[in-house]
Amino acid sequence: MPPYPYLATDYGTQLSLFTHHMWIGGFLIVGAAAHAAIFMVRDYDPTTRYNDLLDRVLRHRDAIISHLNWVCIFLGFHSFGLYIHNDTMSALGRPQDMFSDTAIQLQPVFAQWIQNIHAVAPSATAPGATASTSLTWGGGDLVAVGGKVALLPIPLGTRGFFGSPHSCFYNSCNGTDTFKGCSLCS
């Protein structure tokens, strides 16, 4: 969903902006975790802050960390297993047995449901509005600027299903490491 019409057709700039903002987000998350750890070491006194939210979270930190570890293990093994399966089927010359949009399909049904809700939201919430909340939700057609594709509805299929577990795995591992670092300081 580009903020400027010509930004969508300048693919190098778009990729650079995405990478730039991902790095900034990463630095902010790591900085927040570092400051939380500094607070836990320097300023946190468990005797004066008994039974508040932070104290209750710290008392349950072992359960939280173990559950986050199980989530990381589950997502890691399953997403890696999908790629191992596809690589094996490709090496054996059996493309019909691979997970893809043209063979064995893994449809992200919940993501498609949410995407459909966003596409029909204006008719449900504002009957006078005829446009979708965004053209990327499947409510619009191709938008071209200067002969280049600027915006296209995003159909969700097997490739979206493959990408989601990796994002969840990455975020869960980072959350686990950050929580461990902050909670073990106390």
TrEMBL record:
Membrane-spanning segments: 20-42, 63-84
InterPro entries in alphabetical order: PSI_PsaA/B, PSI_PsaA/B_sf
Pfam families xrefs: PsaA_PsaB
Listed GO CC annotations: chloroplast thylakoid membrane
Top-level taxon of the source organism: Eukaryota
Coiled-coil residues: none
Gene Ontology terms: biological process: photosynthesis
Gene3D superfamilies: Photosystem I PsaA/PsaB
Keyword ATP-binding (UniProt): no
Keyword terms: Membrane, Transmembrane, Transmembrane helix
Stated name of the protein: Photosystem I PsaA/PsaB
Organism: Saponaria officinalis
